[in-house]
Amino acid sequence: MKIREQLEQTLARFTELEGMMSDPAILSGEGSKMATIMREHGGLSKVATKYRRYKKLADDLRELAPMLDAADPDEKAMAAEEAATIKAERDQIWDELLELSVGGEDANRMRCVLEIRAGTGGEEAALFARDLFEMYRRFAETKGWKVEIMDSSVSERGGFKEIILSIEGDGAYRALQFESGGHRVQRVPETEAQGRVHTSAATVAVMPEPEDIEIDLKPEDYRLDKFCASGPGGQHVNKTESAIRLTHLETGIVVQCQDEKSQHKNLAKAIRVLKTRLYEAKRETERKERSKERMSLIGSGDRSERIRTYNFPQNRLTDHRINLTLYKLDQIIAGDMQPVSDALMEYERSMLRDDENN
Question: How many C-beta atoms surround the C-beta of residue 286 within 10 A?
Fold first, then answer.
């Protein structure tokens, strides 16, 4: 999808939400629905208002065009001066819109779900998944984003077989969207007694979290199972049916949450994760329907695609998609992901410019 088409869709949705916010029926209705509408409206506001201004400036330039050919030299000079000022502002706003459009129509969502799963490598892979979790958590802290653990499965040595996070904050999805894929680590594992370097892997998936009104999910759409949580947590966890499993009947998507002691809280988290996966499935269907168009110019976001290698002996990080190599893995794994994020964003931005001009 071209950027202008994407921006038109964003502005149309923003205008629709503006109408909903002034609808007496909605204003007098359920408060949570209005809160959801306002949150989505706020998320689109930055892009939509800029694009609205861009279109206004473009209209102003078209209206000035006849005056640029005026017979009166003074009128012609004044029109040329005004046109130059308008064009400068228009071009600046377009650059800002291009920046905000990196990553497609979901680029400016403030909430996303990040899933990390241990891959090949046994216990070492689970420990690597833990290191990735800590890297993302620390990066989020530097950005002032809110991180919430939705569910996790802990290994014997304290790694993660799987961990699901909700991350919320300005620019969260835009900055993390290119993390989806296979991550490979090369290092001497804690489990290795003879000092040999091993290769293990983990997979990451980053999905934009939809607003409640975007995914219509009713209790009759899924099967709800309650069970006793397993793993760390004390007697309460093992004796109470606080864990929740949801199975979406139409798609077969299964979600479970057991991190909270409260069954009600686990259910609320499970519903959020299920809605996110349903939204991602919908996006994937749309991607396949227009497979000739590139949603992301960097990669497909498929978990099976190996995107990055973390080589600890050489203190080297390599992102294979953009041929990026940085010899400061210790800093990156400690949460300083900005150089990686910036390089990925700049690559996508430059490709978008080329794509838009073709």
Answer: 14
Domains of the chain: residue spans and CATH:
3-101 (1.20.58), 107-358 (3.30.70.1660)
Q: Kindly report the backbone phi and psi dihedral angles of residue 243, in degrees, each rounded to the nearest multiple of 5, phi listed first.
A: -80, 145
Q: Residue 296 has which token pair?
A: 């992301």
Contacts of 324 (CB under 8 A, 6+ apart): 317, 318, 340, 343, 344
CB contact at 8 A, 40 and 211: yes
Task: Look at residue 202 and give its three-state secondary structure.
Answer: strand
Report how far residue 5's alpha carbon sits from residue 11's, in angstroms, rounded to the nearest whole number.
Answer: 10
pLDDT one-digit tens code per residue, 151-189: 999 999 899 999 999 999 988 998 999 999 999 999 998
Residue-level length of the chain: 358
Residue indicated by tokens 């934009």: 208
Tell me which residues of the chain have a pLDDT lower than 50.
Answer: 232-238, 291-295
Helix (H, G, I), strand (E, B) or coil at 25: helix
Cα four-point dihedral sign 224, 227, 231, 234: positive
Which pLDDT score is estimated for 103? 66
The label of the residue with tokens 């694009």 reads: 51
**Rounded to an integer, what distance in angstroms lies between the CA atom of residue 86 and that of residue 103?**
28
84 Cβ neighbours under 8 A, 6+ residues apart: none
Q: In whole angstroms, give the CA distance from residue 187 to residue 94.
A: 45
Contacts of 108 (CB under 8 A, 6+ apart): 43, 44, 46, 47, 100, 171, 173, 174
What would the two tokens of residue 178 be? 């290119």
